[in-house]
Automatic annotation (TrEMBL):
SUPFAM superfamilies: TPR-like. This is N-alpha-acetyltransferase 25, NatB auxiliary subunit. GO terms for cellular component: NatB complex. It is found in: Cytoplasm. Belongs to the MDM20/NAA25 family. The lineage of its organism: Eukaryota, Metazoa, Chordata, Craniata, Vertebrata.
Length: 1004
């Protein structure tokens, strides 16, 4: 705990045990010790706060808050109490209360530098920029130090950045900040680099680039020393913005002479060169070309400059730099784009790339360097280029299998680079099936041979030959996509698992395995794979979607809830962490980082994945409750779900997914395109909109179910759950429109599928195919009609009753159709081949979700129809009428309830039949025959048993002959499928009980 050293000796001795208990996590003992101390010293405020911290950490938030407020009302000024209250409010996620605490402390002790600085930081946590400005100036008046003054200036800049009105920023906040800094400049009080950086930031935001350039080039610019070439980089940026291309060109030339391997300066050099050529720029007749020196304004000068750079490198005996050679290729590309004949003067790209390979082919970066220039080769040069570079690879004599292998890691890397280039040029894709199988055999031989070079590697290090294994896996995937042969996918899994057993830290193996297992419908190993990736911080947003996308759709409800929580923890901690980063930036004068932290926080708050994880988690919580009465209402209340409010920022959603995280070396025509990214974003956004509207409509149903008799009033609010009857109609219209958009989008998307290593398709297409969206919409329309019926009564609503009755019948038919789409074998075994049909399980998940919603709606229907039926019976008794025909809506509801119960029984029977078939598959996979496995089978079996991911493979003693591997793989999915069927079965049983209870309560 903080600040114990400031406590006076007697109190320090008394409080120390409580601090120790809290630090050690022994909160109960801390509470007991605080109680003992408070009995003797009732006015020891810090002890009360420490007790409140203990209560907060034991889950007694209300008691803790009450106790803390008792102390806060007294406006304490002792440092111990203030620090303890600050810690407590942070743990309660109530930073706004800290500001009130220090406001009171500053009022009582107006000359305290410490309290003023704490108040400033408290305002920084809640983003009160105007109050930060005032607090900073008040602090500067008490203690006239430069950092405090510039805290106030930076707070003005933040007001400008956060202002909704851009005009206000440009005319008031930024000019005021500029005048404040200029005052310090005139008085020669600028002391630190951070103050110059802030001045530069203000001028840049005001668009005063000339003034900013004068600052950088003047005496103040001499303070910019923390970063290498900081002044030059800022000058270069300003020259570009001012379109002073001559200076930009001259400065880039000078910088390239100093550092010929800095790629950003080559790009700036070429950009400025061609701008000058387009403008027909000519040097002045007298004086220097520019303020930065000589300017190159012709292609001849550029070619000469490149030749000089290469000549300088060629003169070296070792440690050649890659930059000049790659810059030569970049210049050829740009000259060709402009149809300049001078491009030939630099040489033939094939020869230049071959020379580059000779010099740098043994470096892993060679493939990424050359890959971007492969389009300079003509199609008829592809084979010639590969043959040329292959000649530069030192391989040994071919072995018995006809494969020539490298003798050391440098030769291995050269051969690997050639193989990667061959794939990038499309030569591997052009092979027929037999050729690809031969290629896989060769790649496996290279991979297994290369393992000998990594015997001394640590577990955290990658094997030198890992990329051979990964490429072979990609070729297997190519074969699977082309032929549909499921065996290719099984072989791919075996190879990747083998690779992972030798290189347990290879993220590419894990990501590809994760994707393949999900495609096959096996989610259980995915959780371990994702955990082993050890994703850090923002990676939960960039790759977290791989985990959350498949968990629920594959029936893993508990895992889905955990994976959503995993992502949400990161997003929620982002709020707290970013505030701390901002405070540290103020403390250490890193002012230019503060807007970056704010932008980063906003980007995460508007993340598409964040909105998806939050919505899916809320839906999961509701579905897993599966109760039709009070638990639904309680769940909705606990979520603070207001159906009328849409808290998703649709117009500013950010797609932070890393869609290029998987390495593939595919040729350009098979790579991920921008249109794929746009379609994927639209795909995910449409699915999110459907799920969000469904969630809000469930909230509406919950509120309607528990409204009092005056449920038709304009607005009713009960315990924080608000619902307008009109909001139901609005949300239904939005859902119907979104569903129409989704249907049209899916029809188009089926014609343009994503690349395998591209975006993961959302659940939208399968959900529409299963019929769940249409069925859920139909069921959610019932409450709207029931509201009208309740208002009209049974006597004068014949047409409305007929409409509701037809809707009940239609809903029963749709549910039956959905169930039919769930039927089939999860593992389709034909001709000794096992083909998982995971879409059946996904359809069943949608069926379960839909039944949940139908049950909630049915409960509401019962709550409306029951009073109407009772009223009708009372009227008959008063008039002593004979029994008449039951109103059609009551008969229809009764028939619907019966059909729903029958439907659920059918679903249970189907699940039980799946359990029987899966058990039969398990028993069929067992064998005690003593035949020998092939090498591939032994590898797969050993790897799978070592991992123990999919099921308890150790039950197997031996597999029989050539069928053993296939049977083993089928069994791999058995235990996981049974677990999922049992989980679904449990939900189905609860549904049947709910139907019986609803029927009983309704008396129908």
């Amino acid at each position: 705990m903080a600040a114990r050293g400031h406590v006076q000796d007697p109190n320090d001795r008394r409080l120390r045990p409580i601090y120790d208990y809290l630090d050690n996590g022994n909160n109960k003992m801390a509470i007991q010790q605080a109680d003992k101390l408070l009995k003797k010293h009732k006015d020891l405020h810090c002890a009360k706060v420490l007790k409140a911290i203990g209560l907060q950490r034991t889950g007694k938030q209300d008691e803790a808050f009450t106790l803390a407020q008792e102390v806060a009302v007294l406006e304490p000024t002792d440092d111990n109490s203030l620090q303890a209250l600050t810690i407590l409010y942070r743990e309660m996620h109530r930073p706004e209360l800290v500001t009130k605490l220090y406001e009171a402390a500053v009022r009582k002790v107006p000359t305290s530098e410490e309290y003023h600085s704490h108040l400033f930081m408290a305002y920084a946590r809640v983003g009160e920029y105007k109050k930060m400005q005032q607090a900073g100036m008040a602090l500067y008046k008490i203690v006239p130090k430069n950092p405090y003054y510039f805290w106030s200036v930076m707070s003005l800049v933040m007001q400008a950045i956060s202002a909704q009105d851009e005009k206000l920023s440009q005319t008031m906040f930024l000019p005021l900040a500029e005048r404040m800094v200029e005052k310090m400049v005139k008085e020669e009080k600028i002391e630190a680099e951070a103050e110059v950086q802030l001045y530069f930031m203000i001028l840049e935001r005001l668009g005063k680039y000339v003034e900013a350039l004068e600052v950088v080039q003047g005496p103040l610019g001499e303070k910019l020393t923390s970063e290498l070439q900081s002044r030059e980089n800022k000058c270069m940026m300003l020259y570009r913005r001012l379109e002073r291309w001559a200076e930009c060109n001259a400065l880039s030339c000078k910088l390239l002479l100093k550092n010929p391997d800095d790629w950003q300066f080559y790009i700036l050099y070429f950009d400025s060169l061609f701008y000058l050529i387009d403008q027909s720029w000519a040097p002045p007749q007298e004086g220097a070309h520019s303020a930065e020196g000589e300017v190159h304004a012709s292609t001849a000068q550029a070619i000469s400059f490149m030749e000089d750079r290469i000549a300088t490198e060629e003169a070296k005996e070792s440690k050649h730099l890659r930059g000049p050679y790659l810059a030569c290729l970049e210049l050829i590309r740009r000259l060709r784009e402009r149809s300049c004949p001078e491009a030939q003067q630099l040489g033939e790209p094939l020869e230049l790339m071959f020379q580059f390979f000779v010099k740098f082919g043994d470096k892993p970066c060679c493939i990424t360097d050359l890959e971007i220039f492969l389009d300079l080769l003509t199609p008829d040069q592809h084979v010639q280029f590969i043959n040329r570079v292959m000649e530069a690879v030192p391989l040994g004599a071919p072995g018995e299998d006809g494969v020539a292998l490298p003798g050391d890691t440098r030769a291995l890397q050269r051969h690997l680079c050639v193989t990667q280039l061959s794939r990038s040029l499309g030569q591997q894709h052009a092979l027929n099936t037999e050729g690809k199988l031969g290629l896989i055999k060769e790649l496996k031989a290279h991979y297994r041979h290369g393992l000998q070079f990594g015997k001394s590697c640590l577990k955290t290090e990658l094997q030198f030959s890992d990329m051979y294994c990964l490429m072979a896996a990609h070729v297997y995937i190519d074969l699977w996509l082309e032929t549909g042969d499921q065996n290719m996918l099984w072989q791919c899994l075996g190879l990747l698992e083998e690779g992972l057993s030798h290189s347990s830290s290879n993220a590419q193996f894990k990501l590809l395995l994760l994707l393949l297992y999900c495609r096959l419908g096996a989610f259980e190993p995915v959780v371990d794979l994702y955990s082993s990736l050890d994703a850090k911080h923002v990676q939960h947003d960039t790759i977290g979607y791989l985990l959350t996308r498949y968990a629920e759709s594959l029936g893993q409800f508990a895992a889905a809830s955990q994976s959503c929580n995993f992502s949400l923890r990161f997003f929620h901690s982002n709020q707290k962490d970013t505030s701390e980063y901002i405070i540290q930036a103020y403390k250490y004068g890193a002012f230019e980082k503060i807007p970056e932290f704010i932008a980063f926080r906003n980007r995460l708050n508007h993340s598409l994945h964040f909105a998806q994880a939050r919505t899916e988690r809320m839906l999961l919580d509701l579905f897993l409750e599966a109760d039709t009465s009070s638990p639904l209402e309680e769940s909705v209340k606990s979520m603070s779900l207001c159906p009328e409010e849409d808290d998703i920022p649709w117009d500013s959603l950010r797609d932070n997914r890393d869609l290029t995280v998987l390495v593939s070396w595919n040729p350009k025509d098979r790579q991920l395109k921008e249109e794929h990214k746009q379609h994927s974003l639209e795909d995910d956004t449409l699915w999110l909109r459907l799920r969000s509207l469904t969630l809000r409509l469930i909230g509406c149903v919950s509120a309607l179910t528990h409204l009092p008799a005056s449920r038709n009033s304009e607005k009713t609010t009960e315990n924080g759950v608000a619902a307008k009857p009109s909001s139901l109609q609005s949300l239904l219209s939005q859902l119907e429109n979104t569903l129409n958009q989704a249907t049209q989008f899916t029809e188009k998307q089926l014609q343009h599928p994503y690349p395998f290593v591209g975006p993961v398709p959302s659940r939208l297409a399968q959900a529409l195919s299963s019929g769940c969206c249409q069925c859920q919409l139909s069921s959610l329309q019932l409450p709207l009609h029931l509201q009208e019926l309740e208002t009209a009564g049974l006597d004068e609503s014949t047409e409305l009753q007929t409409q509701i009755s037809n809707l009940f019948k239609s809903l029963a038919v749709q549910l039956q159709d959905m169930l039919e789409k769930c039927k089939g074998d999860l593992l389709d075994v034909k001709d000794d081949q096992s083909k998982p049909q995971q879409f059946l399980l996904e359809n069943l998940v949608y069926f379960v979700e839909t039944v949940c919603i139908v049950l909630w709606v049915s409960n509401y229907c019962g709550s409306v129809l029951r009073p109407l039926k009772s009223s009708l019976q009372k009227k008959k008794k008063k008039k002593k009428e004979a029994s008449t025909v039951t109103p059609p809506v009551l008969s229809a509801y009764q028939e619907f309830s019966s059909s729903l119960q029958s439907l659920l029984n059918q679903a249970l029977e189907h699940i039980k039949s799946q359990e029987i078939s899966l058990t039969a598959l398990k028993l069929g996979a067992l064998s005690l025959e003593g035949q020998t496995q092939s090498e591939a089978e032994e590898t797969f079996t050993k790897t799978a048993m070592d991992k123990d991911r999919l099921c308890n493979e150790r039950l197997f003693l031996r597999r029989s002959g050539t069928e053993g591997l296939e049977e083993h793989r089928r069994f791999c999915f058995w235990t996981e499928e049974v677990k999922r069927w049992l989980e679904v079965c449990r939900l189905m049983n609860s549904f049947v009980r709910e139907i019986e209870k609803t029927n009983k309560n309704t008396g129908m």
